[in-house]
Model the fold of this input.
Amino acid sequence: MNEASSSIAVHIVIPVYNGAAFIEKTISSIRAQTHKNLSICVVDDWSDDSTPEIVLDICRNDSRVRYHRAPRKFGGPAGPRNYGTTLTDAIYVAFCDADDIWHPMKLEIQIGIMHERSLGFSCTAVRKFSDESEFDLASSLSGLHESTLLNTVGMLGRNSVATSSVVLLSEIARELNGFDESSELVAVEDYDFWLRILDDGKTVGMKIETELVGYRLVSTSLSSKKAKQVKRVFLVHKLHFERGRLKMGSAFFSVFSLSLFAFFWLLNKSGR
Done:
């Protein structure tokens, strides 16, 4: 463990709505982190299942875990993530969805690299799974951690940043006002936020190409419907273009958008 980074405080925000099926396993994977200086903030978007009881029971056994009911029903993860981010003065904030899981060494590796390279924003590779009985994230770790710099151009084709893998400086989230809570950006509010972080020109972002997150495939997830997702991605591109963040001519932008739409439409039709 890197002694210089082991004492750095990390605040993990988990937005949840009716997450009783998986929330305990998600929290357990974070509690098991080898990086110990952490706090876990579960923000409940007014669940009507047993989520509150499950989380509160965990809180009674681990003071690092806190349960917060969202100040109002947001109807999406952006609001709960933003609210959870305000409840800390930790240097770093991380995000995890309520059905994903982390490798035990995720934070140790990620915070160590960020501290060593003075990064403000990082993510990792993920491993998709649906059957836990055949899934062992701990076996995915290798000794070397290759990485790729993130930039706006590389992110235009698709969102290559998994929210459950992200760690960033808390001050960045505050300066950029966090995730956009607009209803039209539900399921792509994360993509919009990553582009805004990279577009500001001040933040160095990096993807660690090691699978440190288990991304659970759930058919009811917000990002599972491809056709609607494509339309939302277009909206993100349009918003960034109109704000002057995407540095391209209008004709190029139109051709690019139409080409991207055609690609994802065909992908959706193929059923892949």
About this structure: The beta strands are 10-16, 38-44, 65-69, 92-95, 101-102, 121-129, 147-150, 167-169, 205-216.
